[in-house]
Amino acid sequence: MITTSDFKRGLWIEHEGEPWLILDVNRQSPSARGAALIVKAKLKNPRTGFTQEVSFRGGDKVNEPPVEKRPVQYLYRDADAFHFMDQETFDQFSLSNEELGDAPSYLVDNAELTALMLDEKVIGVELPSHVDLKVVETPPPVKTSGSGAGTKPATLETGLVIQVPLYLEHGELVRVDTREARFVSRAR
Known about the structure:
Elements: E1 2-3, E2 12-15, E3 18-28, E4 38-44, E5 51-57, E6 61-62, E7 68-77, E8 82-86, E9 92-95, H1 97-100, E10 112-118, E11 121-126, E12 130-137, E13 151-156, E14 161-165, E15 173-177, E16 182-186
Antiparallel strand pairs: 1-6, 2-3, 3-4, 4-5, 7-8, 7-10, 8-9, 10-11, 12-13, 12-15, 13-14, 15-16
């Protein structure tokens, strides 16, 4: 069993007999004396794609669904879906844009990910916390004086647009945080 104190983004819980992915967690301490902590979780049902915000009391317990994780490789995209290969069985499967959520913004050919399976059916993929992507479009670099570093928009090879430091150039490889869609550093 999982308690509400364990809730974090990316955790799977069982709610109303269904598996749900926690997208965001907000903890609120009521001002009234003796009132319990309130934990609000934004949940997504992978089977229906439905998202909802659910409030729990501090200390509530929920079951953990039997979500299995398997290593997979992203192969390619066509007009209808994104195609992957299970690296253990070499079986191929596909997921739609809706089933993947934000993941397509970080997918490059041959990327290694983790497939999430429930009852032998793939319900989604889990991205690594950071990926390295190439800058394909950004304004020319700007030299600044002092420590006041600014940012500028950069379009990455997947189409994702993020803010990067002013000194970065077209063609550079950058490390991106997949949880917050933000620049972390230059990649080596």
